[in-house]
Automatic annotation (TrEMBL):
The active site is at residues 239, 262, 317. It comes from the Eukaryota. The gene is Pafah2. This is 1-alkyl-2-acetylglycerophosphocholine esterase. InterPro entries: AB_hydrolase_fold, PAF_acetylhydro_eukaryote. GO terms for biological process: lipid catabolic process. It comes from Anseranas semipalmata. GO terms for molecular function: 1-alkyl-2-acetylglycerophosphocholine esterase activity. Gene3D superfamilies: alpha/beta hydrolase.
Amino acid sequence: ADPVPPPRLGRGNMGGEQSLVLPLGKGPHHVGCVDVMVGHTRQGLFLRLFYPCLPQEGAERPLWIPRYEYCGGLADFTGRSQRWCAPLLSVAFGSCRVPASWKGPFKPCGSGYPLVIFSHGLGAFRTVYSSVCMELASRGFVVAVLEHRDHSACATYFCTAGTGQEQWIHYQRVPQGQKEFYFRNKQVHQRADECVRALRLFQDISSGKSVPNVLHQDFDLSVLKDSVDLAKVAVMGHSFGGVTAVLALVKEPSFRCAVALDAWMFPLENALYPEVPKPVLFINTEKFQTPESIAKMKRLSSRNSQTKIITVLGSVHQSQTDFAFLSGKLAGHIFNVRGTLDPYKGLDITSRAALAFLQRHLDLREEFDQWDNLLEGIGDSVVPEAPFCLSKL
């Protein structure tokens, strides 16, 4: 039986049908999640962990927006007044819960689950990609979604030693007079370094080192010790997180491949393109990419025949986030968070293509290769390479 009932549909405040909860993962595993904070300075780590868990009767579901401060951060990022926009966002999304078992009992795996480190996009935070991360976890992956501390998250925080006082890190725009490339390039390097540190965290756990969780000391991270296969590790991300994933391949040899969702290639310096050693799957939306960005992706594919570029027709940049499910049809089109493609179909295409790619390059035993056609852009909603020559659905 499913761990929670399927999502009901209701009438959105701005017209159109609206999902009241995010979709469940379709895989055979129940999904648990917990927040992990390590260290008491901004040089530590903050992430949400999605993982296969044991069924739990009456399991708590965490809020999708974990704190009101994130509403204020989203208002700041979109350039709107916190005074009216933050309460509006709280009303619109504040009751939404993630259909995963909060701190659910971890399901051990003697052969070890493959690990995915996930990097969020500009102005996002650790829960914005819950739907795709739950899908991966339901298929037998451990997924660690970072909340970056480079001022690219809409808001984040750390807890100081001793008192545990929260220190908030807010979104920062490009300073006046500074070129955007240099500002964003510094951020993308910090983000990739955080991805590497997240991998080090799992290596520490695997070696038996005690790793206290600052936020939830009742969730013992040592349960992961013999159940994560550190020989099968990938990095994944959306937008700014997509290019972060590409850079992480340069910084850390243990990452065997990357999945880049609608990657924003602008912040990566040209000198690094020849240094990307591993295959990348670029899953692009129809409305975001430019010829210049596609050309940068093709530079990577020309150096590695296993690097693939596909475009999902009828999708927009936010189609690969949870916002596609949490906005009514009218609101979704007004705020450009939904394309013409049904968000459930979009998630299915994205996750299946990613799973087939991960099976190929992590040498997984599962039969995800049944979706290999998606990697070649074969399907009624997916095509290879550049979106700018496509007709609209």
